[in-house]
Amino acid sequence: MEWMAFQSGASKSMTELVCDYILVRRPSLPRWWDPVARPHVAVIVEDAIDDSAVRYYLSRTGCPDRNGRVPLEISDIESLPEGSLLEVRYNTTKANLYRLELMDNVPCWRWVGRCRGLSSFESEMVDWTHLLDDVESYRITGLVPN
d(Cα 43, Cα 144) in Å, to the nearest integer? Predict the structure, then answer.
């Protein structure tokens, strides 16, 4: 397994490819909004102009329940096209990257990358660009509307 670390000031981020073939029917998704952790679910698409990774957020905060907890509402990830990359961020130090694959016409998610540690003190975004070069077929042409 290849480890890549990026140093930014005192922060250290371990972003790596997941070499083992781990395929799941549905990835673990955060259920509740936390203003400190700020979890989210986003599709990662390559910008055609500068080859940077662009996020399209599929999650938003819902209405608080009677206990005061705020659910994290997530769009249907099953309707995305095959090859879509999904970033699941649980908190400021933990995020996973998944790629959608069809197995016998059933959508499944392959775990292809993970980040453990702070990305940077200047940015809350995980920089997946160095991994995307190694993830085959990560470019997608568009999103399928619901």
Answer: 12
- Tally of domains within the chain: 1
Residue spans of alpha helices (H) in the chain: 129-132
Q: Which residues contact 131 (CB under 8 A, 6 or more apart)?
A: 4, 15, 16, 17, 97, 112, 113
In which band, very low, low, confident or very high, does the pLDDT at 40 lie, cut at 50, 70 and 90? very high
Neighbours of 82 (CB within 10 A): 11
In a domain, 143, yes or no: no
Beta strands 72-74; 40-46: pairing state: unpaired
Nearest to 126 by CA among 135, 138, 143, 114: 114
Q: Provide the H-helix boundaries in 22-146.
A: 129-132
| Confidence at 1, pLDDT banded by 50, 70, 90 | very low
Residues spanned by the domain of 23: 3-132
Kindly report whether the global pTM for this prediction surpasses the value 0.70.
yes
* pLDDT tens-digit series, residues 54-97: 889 999 999 999 999 999 999 999 889 998 999 999 988 889 99
